[in-house]
Every structure is written in C-alpha cells, then in structure tokens.
Amino acid sequence: MWQKFMAQQPGRISGKVKQRLQGLALLAVQVVAGEIDGRPDRYTYAELADMLGVCPNNWNQNYQGRWRVLVQLVHEIDEMALRDVGKTNKFRKEVAKVNFSPII
Question: Quick check: pTM over 0.85?
Fold first, then answer.
C-alpha cells in the first residue's frame, strides 16, 4: 500500500512529512479494519491533525487529501484480497472435483 501511495505523490516529500504519512498509513489500516469488524473508529480532521502535531491549516493543505487516498487504498487492497480468496476457493473446489471424481 505504501509503495502504491508513494508512487502517486508528486515531487519530493521531506523526511518529517514522510514519517507523519507513514503514521497515517498505519492508522488508515486500523480504521478500515475497524469498519470491517463493525466497530468504526472515525476521527475528525482536527483529531487527526492533533495526532500528527500539525495545525488545522497545515492538515487541510498537506494531509487531508492524502488521508483520503490512504483510506481508499486500504479499501481497494481489502477488496482485491477478498476477490483473490474467492478465486482461490473456487479453484480448490474445482481441483477437488477433478481429483476425487469417481472413475466409472
């Protein structure tokens, strides 16, 4: 997820901003996992800005859009994983039918 996210970022990102974004990435995974488990942990933008130690204006300019992208990427990865599991299960069932069909 991190590599995909970073590939979408234009220009160079400072070390301090990168560190904050990595923290947001981890939080995005936790938030989406909570949503999936039925315990949505929603944070206001003010709370997220406070967690990062930035002022609301800085959050709005530099982090808000990136937060949305991170959460969206986590949702996409989860959907891809579910599709892959479904394909794997379908394949296993097909293999089992072929391998264990009685020979007449």
Answer: no
